UniProtKB/TrEMBL annotation, chains A, B:
Belongs to the class-V pyridoxal-phosphate-dependent aminotransferase family. SUPFAM superfamilies: PLP-dependent transferases (SSF53383). Substrate binds at residue 346. InterPro entries: Aminotrans_V_dom, PyrdxlP-dep_Trfase, PyrdxlP-dep_Trfase_major, PyrdxlP-dep_Trfase_small, SP_NH2Trfase/AEP_transaminase. This is Alanine--glyoxylate aminotransferase family protein.
Amino acid sequence: MGPGPITADPRVLRAMSAALVGQYDPAMTAYMAETQELYRGVFRTANAATLLVDGTSRAGIEAALVSLIEPGDRVLVPIFGRFGFLLQEIAARCGADVHTIEREWGTVFPPEEVIAALDAVQPKLLALVHGDTSTTVAQPLAEIGAACQERGVLFYTDVTASLGGNEFETDAWGVDAATAGLQKCLAGPSGSSPITLSDRAVAVIAARKSIEAGIRDADSQVVAHPIRSNYFDLGQILDYWGEKRLNHHTEATSMLYAARECARLLVEETMSVAVERHALHGGAMAAGLAGLGLELFGDQDHRMNNVIGVFIPAGVEGEAVRGALLADYAIEIGTSFGPLHGRIWRIGVMGYNARRDTVLTTLAALEQVLRRAGAAVPAGGGVDGALAYYGSAE
Amino acid sequence: MGPGPITADPRVLRAMSAALVGQYDPAMTAYMAETQELYRGVFRTANAATLLVDGTSRAGIEAALVSLIEPGDRVLVPIFGRFGFLLQEIAARCGADVHTIEREWGTVFPPEEVIAALDAVQPKLLALVHGDTSTTVAQPLAEIGAACQERGVLFYTDVTASLGGNEFETDAWGVDAATAGLQKCLAGPSGSSPITLSDRAVAVIAARKSIEAGIRDADSQVVAHPIRSNYFDLGQILDYWGEKRLNHHTEATSMLYAARECARLLVEETMSVAVERHALHGGAMAAGLAGLGLELFGDQDHRMNNVIGVFIPAGVEGEAVRGALLADYAIEIGTSFGPLHGRIWRIGVMGYNARRDTVLTTLAALEQVLRRAGAAVPAGGGVDGALAYYGSAE
């Protein structure tokens, strides 16, 4: 019950045991096409360029940024948590001229603040986290995406923590590139990064396909720089996933099986029902924590459905509580980073763990551990709070 | 029976179905330490910095090169097949000043030719493939490693295709960095890259840990450049695998389970017995192909144990034979690249497929398919050749 990685769905774990096939076996081509179509459903997009990057969610982030950013490009990164700082750092390593704006952790940007920064900075690319697990809140994206489209700014968003458990619309929101991972609401293991790219993003990448020392115009000015990475060169990776089926690296077949099964689970459930499920059980967890007398962290109007921040009560040793939950109840909850370190726990309710039994068991166990740690907790308050929430939601 | 990826060992496939644990669960720390120790056995090294990169074998190559090469560094890449060209390309994308020497495909360099180039080019790093699956031959490395050590040149080698099926000695041969994959003689799926780094390589990486705009000396000259990649920053990844246990990306836990099981299989068998097994069954396959009247490709004195190149007989359509083997016998053999395209097939005998039954079945099937394709093949010649080899090897 941490903020991810989480307990994987048994169907996903079993999928990885399937026999391997060669990466040019006709069966493999069909598996890839099926996976792409499933992820179009998950990302809510018609993008042809919807595929997997072979690495963890961070590999998907870096593939998108290194493929879209040329050295010297101006990039705007609004930061409201740890993963905003990660986008800043990766963009800087790509050679970008990075501009940032920041918000206090636990809050999100009013969209007009980001739009004003777009006008002030005039970046080529906006890189913005959707849901930042470090702070538990999700940035509203629809207005910002529309503003990017009006201004011709490329819009990249990291949806690793949010996808599948919170509303997300690639096409309707004007997103040019989105990357994810399996280890949150997708109920799988870390190690494969689903990614989708708009035609506009694909055109930017296609212009950089030369690996020569630079593409020059008639006046010998460099107009495009080669992509700095081979492994993350989305131009070459698209040629592998696309009709050309050109060889790049050897596909991570077992992780493709896992990613495909994750998407099947969501598409079978439908995206809207999956989001409702996360909202229901995440809401019940929040109500239960309040019922234990604990104070919730962050802007609750913008809280992600799938992760709840809660202040560690005064006088309680946070790490001792986490240790007891793991040792005595086999339940893991999350610590926190940066300015929140030692101040809050983060409890995940996502993917295979977004269930009534996991919510109630966690609350029952937490009550016992808190009591033994010397906190004054109302007997049954957590479970009562959650059950009341379930009752009112029905 | 292609040149990889190959049929994975069922033990490895089952290992991926194990439940996930959080990446800071004490159990996970123990799994990581166990995996590191197992790979020290596989790589034949005492290097503390022995770990997994979360991506395919190509991810390991890029992690090593982008972490060791600073922009402007002189790098020597001897090329004797497709993967030498890949090392050249990746080094160039890292900003290296790349120098190459080339040999005809199917041959290897006399070590003194590489050593002479070391003296002529005086590189910071030598990047050299061990076994190049595209040509089926393996470059002798021991003398070259000793020469690098004498000259203070960093020595990187890609052992993806060779490790586990051919003799390889990280420490005894003076190798500073070696990277591999699971999908060849390690009998697993693509998606995790075992890697080992000498103390000398770790020191080069440690000097680059600043992500600032460069580390400057007293005269404000830049003396070290930050690593261009976050995902492949081996300095940060070593802090995750090392005693500090700092957070980096979310570990690809299921692939770690796979990599661990691959190493267990080899360490249980012992490395020398595994190499002998590949030599035995690879030799039987080569003898069987000769028994079918086919001509072997490449310098047989330097052929890898685990992959055999064989010329497509005149008048036979190579792709039709591959198609019939797959459709009618469920056996995949490999095509070839570059100057060898359309001229040879490549047949793998590696990992879980390095067995007597797979060798004999493949030879029996190939005989039938070749005969139906119009080739004059001696009845039973393939199986007779292999059985004679097995008999003489006992």
